[in-house]
Specification:
- This protein is 53% helix and 11% strand.
- The protein has 212 residues and is an alpha/beta fold.
- The longest helix is centred in the C-terminal third of the chain and has 17 residues, at 153-169.
- Bound molecules: 2'-deoxycytidine-5'-monophosphate.
- 2'-deoxycytidine-5'-monophosphate binds at residues 9, 31-32, 35-36, 78, 81-82, 85, 112-114, 163, 167.
- Residues 9, 31-32, 35-36, 78, 81-82, 85, 112-114, 163, 167 line the site of 2'-deoxycytidine-5'-monophosphate.
């Protein structure tokens, strides 16, 4: 079974993806990490984030061993990822890696922006996670502070809104719900509540009881 989770920055889809993978015994891929790794590789080698040739080369040399690097979690890496991910050739190069991950048994949970629309259009269950931008900014600020990073909530909110704008309006694979995705608004849900709501959706789909 393939579970596709999409949604905007800091909507909680990463945590949800991880928890669902644990629950079902599936593998989990946070696809944002891939674009963050490409952005960090460019920043480390001193290239401009809009340098297409360098970005494509970095995408081709992607090393999954770097996915655990804490530097990938930073605000700067996220902002950089939003820029490199708008380059169509970069996205193209990264499609196979994601599809192969999804295809390996016993099942997989992938979260990102275009999983239900482009990477796994035939996913068994698609969930589109949304949350109020102010709630997302608050959560991201708390996470950054917990990592010991300085974070100003107003700046984080501005970054989130800029990222939403860029991710939703790029010409290739923009952030949008697939026509057959289930919407999960977790503005007022804690982590456990979000996980329960997602499992309810998945179980209803598996039992052939499509929800409205
Ligand atoms: O989910 P995240 O914050 O780690 O993602 C960082 C950026 O990467 C996001 O702003 C857009 C891009 N991204 C993408 O274009 N497609 C994906 N499947 C995942 C992330």
């Amino acid at each position: 079974m393939i579970i596709a989770i999409d949604g905007p920055a800091a909507s909680g889809k990463g945590t949800l993806g991880k928890r669902l993978a644990q629950h079902y015994g599936y593998r989990h891929l946070d696809t944002g990490v891939i674009y963050r790794a490409v952005a960090c590789a460019l920043m480390q080698s001193g290239h401009d984030l809009r340098d297409e040739a360098a970005a494509v080369a970095a995408a081709m040399e992607l090393d999954p061993a770097t996915f655990g690097d804490p530097a990938l979690k930073s605000q700067k890496a996220g902002e950089g990822a939003s820029i490199v991910s708008a380059i169509p050739r970069v996205r193209e190069v990264l499609v196979d890696f994601q599809r192969q991950f999804a295809a390996n048994p016993p099942g997989a949970v992938l979260d990102g922006r275009d999983i239900g629309t482009v990477i796994c259009p035939d996913a068994d269950v698609k969930i589109f996670v949304v949350a109020d931008p102010r709630v997302r900014a608050h959560r991201r600020t708390m996470e950054a502070k917990a990592r010991g990073e300085a974070a100003d909530e107003a700046v984080v909110l501005a970054d989130i809104l800029a990222r939403d704008e860029r991710d939703q309006n790029r010409p290739v694979a923009p952030l949008k719900p697939a026509a057959d995705a289930y919407l999960l608004d977790n503005s007022r849900l804690d982590i456990e509540g979000g996980v329960r709501a997602a499992i309810d959706i998945i179980e209803a789909v598996r039992a052939g009881r499509p929800r409205g």
